[in-house]
Amino acid sequence: MHSLCKILTRFMVAAMAATLTIMSTLSMAAARDVASAQDGASTSSALAAVQDYRLGPGDQVQLTVYDDKELSGQFYVSSTGTISLPLVGEVNVAGITIHELEALITAKLADGFILNPKVSAEVLIYRPFYILGEVNKPGEYPYTSGLTALRAVAVAAGFTYRANSHRVFIRHPNDPVEHEYKLNGDVYIQPGDVVRIAERHF
Predict the structure, then answer these.
(1) Rounded CA gap, 28 and 21, in Å?
(2) What SS3 string covers 8-65?
(3) Largest CA distance in the chain
(4) Residue from 167, 164, 163, 171 nearest 189 by CA
(5) What is the C-alpha separation between 152 and 139, in angstroms, rounded?
(6) Taking a C-beta distance cutoff of 8 angstroms, is the pair 89, 105 a contact?
(7) Among positive and negative, which fits the CA dihedral 171, 174, 177, 182?
(8) In 3D, which of 149, 143, 155, 145 has the Cα closest to residue 198?
(9) 60-125 and 129-197 have identical folds
(10) Domain 60-125 grouped into CATH 3.30.1950.10
(11) Class of domain 129-197
(12) Residue 164, helix vs strand vs coil
């Protein structure tokens, strides 16, 4: 009888251990799924921001006209929002997306210059962003795709001891007012944005 009790006890302990192991494995898998979903959402947000990006002064674009190297090249958007292209001359591109740029250049080349032109475009260099306020090195910095507000602070050498590290204020190009956001990894910076870190209230 005593031996039977010992066997039953060992069986119950083993069963409980197996159950805990399975539950732990499921919890870890669920956590990975949540993290993966969050990363995917952040990546999607960054990608959407780039696709919706509107050109402005200081940007550099690459235009490729298929089967015509002389018309292809790299072009800077001037301070007036234009690029100067062979054949078609000055083209106003301020405020349009890269896909709209492709359609615009295609239409202009098709208007008496090239039969059925095929044009692709991409942004090579984005205009810089600016970060002000309670960071150690405020100023102008090159923009990189997928830049978050937290990363912008890191680029500017981090917060000062007076900084409110929970909020960020951002003014977008052509927007007369700045907007307040909770400072986390989901806040993305656009080229030309002015980022401000305010002083915290002691």
Answers:
(1) 11
(2) HHHHHHHHHHHHHHHHHHHHHHHHHHHHHHHHHHHHHHHHHHHHCCCCCCCCEEEEEE
(3) 101
(4) 171
(5) 11
(6) no
(7) negative
(8) 149
(9) no
(10) yes
(11) alpha beta
(12) coil
The closest of 40, 64, 197, 177 to 131, measured between CA atoms, is: 197
Tokens of residue 198, six digits: 């305010």
End-to-end CA distance of the chain: 71
Query: Are 173 and 192 a contacting pair, CB within 8 Å?
Result: yes
Question: Rounded distance, CA 182 to CA 184, Å?
Answer: 6
Q: What is the pLDDT along the chain (202 residues), one digit of tens a residue?
A: 545 445 444 545 454 544 444 444 433 443 344 333 344 444 444 444 555 789 999 999 999 999 899 999 999 999 999 999 999 999 999 999 999 999 999 999 999 899 999 999 999 999 999 999 999 999 999 999 899 999 999 999 999 999 999 999 999 988 899 999 999 989 999 999 999 999 998 6
What span, in angstroms and rounded, lies between the C-alpha atoms of 75 and 121? 11
> What residue type is assigned to position 13 of the chain?
V
Give the pair of three-digit tokens for residue 115: 């039969």
DSSP state of 165: T
Question: Domains of the chain: which residue ranges?
Answer: 1-51, 60-125, 129-197
- Reduced 3-state DSSP string for 114-142: CCCCCEEEEEEECCCEEEEECECCCEEEC
**pLDDT given for residue 10 in this prediction:** 55
